[in-house]
């Protein structure tokens, strides 16, 4: 009887430790606030790397955050799904929430979004909920440009086309893209560039990106947060969902509030 009790206690202890170390960080949302020097007085909420199949942060929590913050824009920086169309119904519940907030929303695709053969089906779902999908395109506003560059790691980007505009009034330029590695190839100046892709490592152990090839920046130890580059300042979100394994270690799910002032 004592042995059975010891086994039960041991199993419960392992389960609790596993939950605290690997599962709790997927549910325990961290709201990051980032300041930017800008002429435009704007607030942008960035949600990156949904991987909607593995999203553990309640959609109602995200809706409350958006309604409380009252941003000017929502930027969705790719990887809406993990790998297939079966995830669309849950994605549509998320997009319904975004639409209900009434906030103007812009998006780019990530590498996982093209794991499905007919990516236009995902694009149609996004547009169905009034999400402005930018594929190497820009939108000019009264006081700024919003530029969406398609995924770099799959070679879908077209920098020249994305920046095919003149800016005589020197308006701020806000760029959204998925893979931050594109900053090494950008010659154009920008005020703010936001990205995701790297999940803040997701399993944050030393030297992971020395072994797993996640691109040039990751190898240099740049995989989250705000950084200054030669032509502007960029930010890498830790993302809100998980890919492959639905766990996080030493890094929480993130939504980012960018305050331009």
From TrEMBL:
Any single GO CC term annotated in Swiss-Prot or TrEMBL for this entry: membrane
Calcineurin-like phosphoesterase domain ranges (all copies): 43-199
Transmembrane parts of this sequence: 6-24
Keywords, sorted A to Z: Hydrolase, Membrane, Metal-binding, Transmembrane, Transmembrane helix
GO molecular-function term, one example from the UniProt record: metal ion binding
Example of a GO biological process term: lipid A biosynthetic process
InterPro entries: Calcineurin-like_PHP (IPR004843), Metallo-depent_PP-like (IPR029052), Metallophosphoesterase_sf (IPR051158)
Pfam families membership: Metallophos (PF00149)
Record carries keyword Transmembrane helix: yes
Alphabetized PANTHER family for the sequence: PHOSPHODIESTERASE YAEI, TRANSMEMBRANE PROTEIN WITH METALLOPHOSPHOESTERASE DOMAIN-RELATED
UniProt-recorded name of the protein: Metallophosphoesterase
